[in-house]
């Protein structure tokens, strides 16, 4: 059976990445798109080859032809609309961060369990072979004992109308991109962080964090990462073991039209004999949709289930608390 997806809102990520990546698949199709404006829904649906357009999110949620809903609304609407979808008996793939408090993730877990649907957070990076390879190498001991992880993720966006710069929408660097170094480190190490210290700079006009540096203690390693919404675009993740280091060159916005590179270095500081590993051409958004649809068809777990989202959200909440209180904060389990 081919499953029908519906999309809430004509978000940039949906129009430019997620929907195009889901085209021409034997197991699913994007059947509908809803917008707060019917004209916008119709125009966007027509441009993307989507058959149904709705002038409200509620109409799409109520449509019995839609099986799975992709929720790329601004962060502050994720929980409200994901809950509406679950209550209507729909499966939901919701953009990161799925919630802005751990208590809200717990509400989603309760609703999911009661309705028996599949609900997941759209950390597409987890479906990309470069992260599966990194996890295999780190957990397989290729680097020796890994005790340090470092990450950076930045872009420059000072547009006051962008959802990332609106505090009430759950904007800011940590919620938008700080979630990635945290999520991927948890994935690669297979551990949860124990405690955190953090330094956050806030934009005086927006009230959102624009430069955030975080130190997290995991059971076996330290993670240091910095994220910014107002710095030169850059992204990198590095895992340091006692014998080798592993560097992921485009860790988060992995392109689909060229291979991704991982650099394995055994201490060659001049970087002349580094081993460069290439992952096969992959579209992380298509892989994410395939894995999610398979979970629905076969009755399995979402690729990034709510239990995982709960751990990520608890750590993110603790980061804010640590910065505010200027001290180490234990992360609840
Ligand atoms: N996984 C990834 O690679 C990735 C990348 C980028 C963003 N994201 C996530 O995807 C989500 C959307 O990001 P985006 O940059 O694509 O957002 P965006 O272009 O600003 O789109 C958000 C959409 O939400 C709808 N909306 C409903 N209420 C709104 C309000 N009060 N203000 C503004 N928009 C409202 C609008 O759709 P209508 O007007 O059509 O109703 C709008 O098009 C965020 O949660 C973000 O974290 C994920």
Describe the structure.
- Belongs to the Gfo/Idh/MocA family.
- Residues 132-246 form the GFO/IDH/MocA-like oxidoreductase domain.
- By secondary structure, this protein is of the alpha/beta class.
- The protein folds into two domains: 3-124, Rossmann fold (3-Layer(aba) Sandwich), CATH 3.40.50; 125-285 and 314-330, Dihydrodipicolinate Reductase, domain 2.
- It is built from nine helices and 15 strands.
- It has helices at residues 12-21, 38-48, 57-62, 78-87, 102-115, 129-139, 173-189, 284-298, 306-325, and strands spanning 3-8, 28-34, 52-54, 68-71, 91-94, 119-121, 146-156, 195-202, 209-217, 222-228, 230-241, 245-248, 260-265, 275-279, 329-330.
- The chain has a nine-stranded mixed sheet. It has a six-stranded parallel sheet with strand order 3-2-1-4-5-6, sandwiched between helices.
- A hairpin with a 3-residue loop joins strand 11 (230-241) and strand 12 (245-248).
- It is globular and about 55 Å long.
- It starts with a strand and ends with a strand.
- The relative contact order is 0.15.
- The model has no long low-confidence stretch (mean pLDDT 98).
- Bound molecules: NADP nicotinamide-adenine-dinucleotide phosphate (NAP).
- The site of NADP nicotinamide-adenine-dinucleotide phosphate has 19 residues, from helix 1.
- Residues 9-13, 35-36, 40, 72-75, 77, 95-96, 122, 124, 163, 176 line the site of NADP nicotinamide-adenine-dinucleotide phosphate.
């Amino acid at each position: 059976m081919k499953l029908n997806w519906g999309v809430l809102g004509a978000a940039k990520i949906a129009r430019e990445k997620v929907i195009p990546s889901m085209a021409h698949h034997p197991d699913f199709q994007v059947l509908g798109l809803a917008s707060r404006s019917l004209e916008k829904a119709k125009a966007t649906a027509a441009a993307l080859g989507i058959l149904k357009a709705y002038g409200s999110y509620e109409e799409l949620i109520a449509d019995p032809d839609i099986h799975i809903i992709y929720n790329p609304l601004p962060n502050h609407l994720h929980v409200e609309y994901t809950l509406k979808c679950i209550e209507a008996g729909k499966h939901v793939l919701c953009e990161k961060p799925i919630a802005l408090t751990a208590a809200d993730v717990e509400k989603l877990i309760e609703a999911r369990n009661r309705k028996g649907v599949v609900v997941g957070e759209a950390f597409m990076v987890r479906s990309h072979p470069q992260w599966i390879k990194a996890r295999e190498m780190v957990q397989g001991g290729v680097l020796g004992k890994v005790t340090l992880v470092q990450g950076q993720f930045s872009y420059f966006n000072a547009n006051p109308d962008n959802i990332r710069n609106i505090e009430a929408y759950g904007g800011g660097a940590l919620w938008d991109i700080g979630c990635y170094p945290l999520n991927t480190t948890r994935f690669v190490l297979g551990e949860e962080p124990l405690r955190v210290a953090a330094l956050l700079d806030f934009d005086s006009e927006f009230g959102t964090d624009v430069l955030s540096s975080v130190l997290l203690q995991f059971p076996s390693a330290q993670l240091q990462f910095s994220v910014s919404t107002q710095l030169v675009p850059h992204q990198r993740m590095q895992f340091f073991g006692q014998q080798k280091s592993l560097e992921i060159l485009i860790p988060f916005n992995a392109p689909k039209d060229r291979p991704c590179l991982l650099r394995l270095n055994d201490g060659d500081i001049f970087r002349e004999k580094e081993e460069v590993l290439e992952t096969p051409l992959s579209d992380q958004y298509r892989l994410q949709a395939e894995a999610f649809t398979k979970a629905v068809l076969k009755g399995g777990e979402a690729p990034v289930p709510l239990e995982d989202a709960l751990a990520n959200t608890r750590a993110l909440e603790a980061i804010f608390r640590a910065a505010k209180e200027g001290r180490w904060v234990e992360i609840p389990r």
